[in-house]
Amino acid sequence: MYLMESTEEARRLLEQEQSQDTRDVLLRTGLKPGDRALDAGCGPGGIAELMVERVGEGGHVTGVELHEGRLAEARTRNAHRPNVTFLQADVRTTGLPPDAFDYAWSQYVFEYLPDRDVALAELIRVTRPGGRVVVSDIDGLGFQNWPFPEHLRLGTQRIVEALAARGFDLYVGRKLYSEFRRAGLTDVRVHLMPFYLSPGAAEARLVRDWKTRFEALAPVGAAVLGGLEAYQSHCADFLAMLEDPEGLKYAVTLVTEGTKP
Hints:
Layout: H1 9-17, H2 20-28, E1 36-40, H3 46-55, E2 60-65, H4 68-77, E3 84-88, E4 101-107, H5 116-126, E5 127-139, E6 145-146, H6 150-165, H7 176-182, E7 186-199, H8 204-216, H9 218-225, H10 228-242, E8 248-259
Parallel strand pairs: 1-2, 1-4, 2-3, 4-5
Antiparallel strand pairs: 5-8, 6-8, 7-8
Helix pairs in contact: 2-3, 6-9, 9-10
């Protein structure tokens, strides 16, 4: 179940996907010219676009996305690129042939999957022996703030617990290293990237990103904080904290990679 749907979600996803950090980590985790690459859960196609640039004319990128609207955006965005294909499928059951890819990538998808072991097994299945499987995901989003007023910390914790009950894991990033090893992948490595880093008042993009997130989570937040008014008050206080010039706010992404034996 995708909990973050809102009118601004496509914009938010593209801003995440098109960062220099994403370009760097694709290179660092082994995406090469000529590779056959998979973007599992490709969203509006921003990362697939970067992958196509990297693999070049001799390579090919396949994007898999379940959401029809995101899939249409990805196809439109990449319509002029002949070496990319987009398919509608669940990342857990892609229907793709085994050993088809040199490099399989998934970003900000596993946090939504209570059965992410099934998704990881599918990425491994479609990757050739010797190929790389790479999963990029958040770890502890929303808690790395200082100062962090107690009422905000407690309210955030209650929302996170409610999300966890729905299968959404904000701490998935730290769990992937051991899950990769249990799945039989070798040469497992982890890279830490900033999701955001904001000493002082947060820039407008980050504030806008949190507003989009709060819009999507309103039904969950209102249910656990005692109503919509209480939730909106929590959101307003959180946004004010982001804009506090005296505070530090940050969040991290953990990128886990391994080789299929």
